[in-house]
């Protein structure tokens, strides 16, 4: 599986966890059973990493939003994408920040309605900090 596809699967898990209070393992198990898919190990690692570091990741995102914005104002889709990217930028040494940002922008282009510039802007600000 390509790294982009693994990120995409990780995004799906991170996005679903926003709406589901079950443990991540339960979400993965239910998704694999009901959708007849198998999640890539890297996708699972991304989702687990995000939720193990959620407070720090959300603080990083929040602190780089424009005045008057807060994390609750961000679409859930863009938030899941940014959480994944910030996790890779801060906690995965083998992924260059530019790659994490570019992949996030590609996910935003695919899954949001014209929010890729917003995602790029916030992640770029985090990268420069």
How much is the average pLDDT? 94
Q: What is the CA-based Rg, rounded?
A: 14 Å
Number-wise, the strands total 0
Oligomer: single chain
Helix and strand string, N-terminal first? HHHHHHH
Low-pLDDT runs:
none
Distance between the termini: 32 Å
Largest sheet: none
What is the global morphology?
globular
Helix content: over 70%
Number of helices: 7
Strand content: under 5%
| Estimated structural class | mainly alpha
Question: What is the strand and helix layout of this fold?
Answer:
Elements: H1 3-19, H2 24-35, H3 41-52, H4 54-62, H5 76-91, H6 97-111, H7 116-128
Helix pairs in contact: 1-3, 1-5, 3-5, 4-5, 5-6, 5-7, 6-7
Short description:
By secondary structure, the protein is mainly α. The protein has helices at residues 3-19, 24-35, 41-52, 54-62, 76-91, 97-111, 116-128. Helix content is 73%, strand content 0%.
């Amino acid at each position: 599986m390509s790294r982009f596809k693994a990120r995409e699967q990780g995004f799906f898990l991170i996005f679903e966890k926003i709406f589901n209070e079950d443990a991540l393992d339960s979400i993965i198990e239910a998704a694999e059973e009901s959708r007849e898919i198998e999640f890539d190990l890297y996708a699972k690692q991304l989702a687990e990493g995000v939720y193990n570091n959620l407070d720090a990741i959300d603080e990083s995102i929040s602190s780089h939003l424009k005045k008057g914005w807060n994390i609750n104002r961000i679409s859930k889709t863009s938030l899941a994408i940014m959480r994944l990217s910030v996790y890779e930028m801060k906690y995965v040494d083998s992924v260059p920040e530019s790659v994490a940002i570019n992949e996030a922008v590609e996910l935003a282009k695919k899954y949001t309605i014209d929010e890729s510039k917003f995602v790029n802007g916030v992640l770029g600000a985090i990268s420069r900090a």
